[in-house]
Specification:
Length: about 300
């Protein structure tokens, strides 16, 4: 009897978990793959390449076609044809959004320097939903219905985000209490981050047990892991390092994902070399972005 492949087993475990949690979205997987694997290599890939990988991840042809149609209708991807072959690329209109997302997904840290200025906005009335959305988009954290923590000096706070009648005061020294720790934990997605770390520790161990993952397993696991990590990394609030708790799992989880990614990269790129096609032939070599991810050079 042959010994089960530990990498294949970990892929199946993650697929089962994602299917059970309903987080295995075909359209999101496609965006993850196009941004992560195809973006640094010209940005265009054949429909057959996409179908092959999605099939490996348990996404059938019908679901892929539906997802592609939705992404095209919403302006996320562009479709082109060459003879009987179809090709996909992320839309140029979302290029800056994708690059901004990459900077957060592949950053070496989500933490701001410990000496980052801090200020409090104290509003006379509870914040409106619109005001709160604007402040949170700027990286602020709501501590109470009328109190928001911002990571900038009061004098430097943008005029368009100053609330009428609100007080903005510098807070050079903050010692998080129970309530602030709870809000920070939610904003940094710490419960889900810890679950992800627990899920990928066995993946890291499995990778250590094999000389080299197969190209098929490597590209599947890389796509699946970035799909899971991307969903959380884009929601993690960047905070000054002096505000996080000693047991904050995000730095360790980010380092774990970076380590696995580095291990998968050579074999997954070999899969792309052998299987991915553009209208003019094989994919071009990767650009500098790929080598710089997670601080690699």
């Amino acid at each position: 009897m042959s010994t089960p492949n530990p990498i294949t087993a970990t892929i199946e475990t993650r697929l089962t978990a994602l299917q059970g949690s309903q987080h295995l979205s075909a359209w999101s997987l496609i965006v993850s793959f196009l941004g992560d694997a195809i973006g640094p290599r010209g940005g265009v890939v054949s429909a057959s390449t996409l179908q092959t990988l999605m099939q490996r991840l348990g996404i059938g042809h019908g679901a892929v076609r539906t997802a592609v149609s939705r992404l095209a209708a919403e302006g996320w991807i562009e479709r082109s044809s060459e003879g009987r072959n179809s090709f996909y690329a992320l839309s140029g209109d979302v290029g800056e959004t994708v690059l901004s997302a990459e900077r957060r997904i592949y950053a070496t840290s989500s933490l701001l320097p410990a000496d980052t200025p801090k200020s409090l906005i104290i509003s006379a009335d509870p914040l409106s939903d619109a005001s709160l959305r604007d402040l949170e988009a700027a990286g602020a954290l709501q501590l109470a219905p009328q109190v928001v923590l911002c990571f900038a000096r009061a004098t430097d706070f943008p005029e368009n985000l100053r609330l009428p009648g609100a007080t903005i005061a510098d807070a050079p020294v903050l010692t998080p209490g129970t309530a602030m720790i709870e809000q920070l934990s939610k904003a940094r997605q710490l419960t889900e981050i810890e679950r992800l770390r627990a899920a990928y520790l066995p993946v890291s161990q499995a990778l250590k047990s094999v000389p080299e993952p197969s190209p098929d397993d490597a590209i599947a696991l890389r796509c699946l892991m970035i799909h899971e990590w991307r969903r959380l990394a884009l929601r993690v609030l960047a905070v000054p390092a002096d505000l996080i708790q000693p047991d904050d799992p995000e730095p360790q989880t980010r380092a774990l994902i970076a380590s696995i990614y580095s291990r998968l990269l050579p074999s997954s790129e070999a899969w792309l070399d052998a299987n991915a096609a553009t209208p003019s032939g094989p994919l071009p070599p990767p650009d500098a972005r790929l080598a710089q991810r997670f601080g690699n050079t």
